[in-house]
Amino acid sequence: MQNLSCLTYYAHGFAPWSLHSFRVQACTAKGCALGPLVENRTNEAPPEGAVTVFVILEGPREVKLKWEAPLSPNGRLTYAVFFTGLFYVEQVKYNYSLLNDTQILYHTEEANLWVPISGLVPFSNYTVEVNASNSQGSVISDPITIMMPPGAPDGVLPPRLSSATPTSLQVVWSTPVRNNAPGSPSYRLQMRPSHSMDGILDLFSDPSASVSYVIGDLQPFTTYELRLIASNEYGSTYSDWTSLVTTEDKPGPIDPPFLLDVSPRTMTLKWQHPSRPNGVITHYNIYKNGHFHSKLSGKISNSTMLNLHPNASYHFQLEGCTSKGCSLSPETRTVWTLPDAPEDIPNPELYSDTPTSVSISWKLPLFPNGQLENFTIQRKSKGMEQVTTLVTLPLNHSMKFVDQTSALSPWTTYEYRILMSTLNGGTNSSAWVEVTTRPSRPAGVQPPEVLVLGPDMAKVIWSPPLIPNGNILSYEVCMPDPRIRVTPSGSNTSLLSQIMSHLIPFTNYSVTIVACSGGGGHLGGCTESLPTHIITHPTIPQGIGTLSVTPVSESYIGVSWQPPSRPNGPHLRYELLRRKIQQPLASNPPEDLNLWRTIYSGTQRFYEDKGLSR
User: Where is pLDDT greater, at 468 or 15?
Assistant: First the structure.
């Protein structure tokens, strides 16, 4: 374009927004070389020319639109389609309020294409313009007026609940926001079970102009879906489905509960919720043998009956309740709880009328808990763990028994109890009851130990009987004569003693102990030990009688005597003493006057004293 040596060049005379390519060629004396190709456009200018618009009606809510570009776009054009007329404020949110406005319904950079424009209001007029613009300006088409044909109604809202009963719904609805055609619309009402796509029921046999309807023969507390169909001669519009609920009623028939897991004191009730609850089951009432028993949550379907009586008959009823009332089931079949061990068995009555027997009597339990089968009597010694079963008696036996077993001992405390059994139910017992057998005479009275203390005194030592068979009331020390009664003290009864005095020297004694027992106001008896034989120590004789003196001559006297009444020892010897107390014929008193002189010593009981002085 230019041959010069400067480094800039100004080109002009181009059309607006036209594309041009440039490259630089540099030459020397040896030749030329081309630089890289560079492209660029000229700036935009306002478009020039007319925009021609074509419109085709596609129905009551849609048109097709096409336009031609202006003769000189002079830049990159953007087309905006303007509609002026009636519009719904927010149709997607069911706001069918009408607004007279101008709105841009389409944007594009293309021309000569058919474009669909929807969402228009039927049976209304619109003015259509297309604006072509670039960054420097715009040009707008001539306005075109179109008249939309009539169509189906718009703004058909779901029906509303006016009032409800357990078996009916009264619904009302509003007229459409816009009928979109001359005249008034007609209506149809459809119903289906909740969330079901099948079973749609037309409630009107023919279209109606009414705006309310009462639906009958419904189920209580049931959700139904309804929708409204508004129609004119140009079409029909369906509202959305809406859910309406009938009010609650008392439950339908309730089956009696099942009785499971029967035991002596419990059983489980299990039931099914009513097939037609007719509302929310707020609670269940359980009736036992015709009387109210308990109230349970309406969400549960089982309950365990506690604290029942064994071997007893029961029947139950279940009552289900809603906020509107209650329905009572029929009675269950009568069920018997299982037998169990007897309860509250009275303590036996005990009486001992001999030292080795106990009379036992008893009464039936307060709660047999089944068919009594037998009675068992058990015994144990007080303070011992070992238990002896005495006898098991049938039910027809008299409720008395005498324990005369050889194991019983006098004056011993025993404990007895009664065990009672039910058929297939178990065994239970009374409490242990104490009884003490009557006392008896002691056994095991040991011979005493005797210590001879002198000619007339001995100490008798003895121990308590090995088997006292009662409380030791007294001891008697028998020589057998003398006899001394000793009452034991409570301080020390392990070793007992008694000093026996006034005994006869050198005498054989047979010493025994007689122990006597008793207790509880009864005398047990006395037992004498085997004897212990002793001899008292000897001592000087006692009871020497008067001499028998017989003068034989003037110088001879015969003397005799009897043995002493109490020799007090063995090997008895006699000494005979004589003294001179007077000698009248002597001139002088003799030297042996009043002096005792032994004249005999021996075992004989006589002596001849000869050679006496005259």
Answer: 468
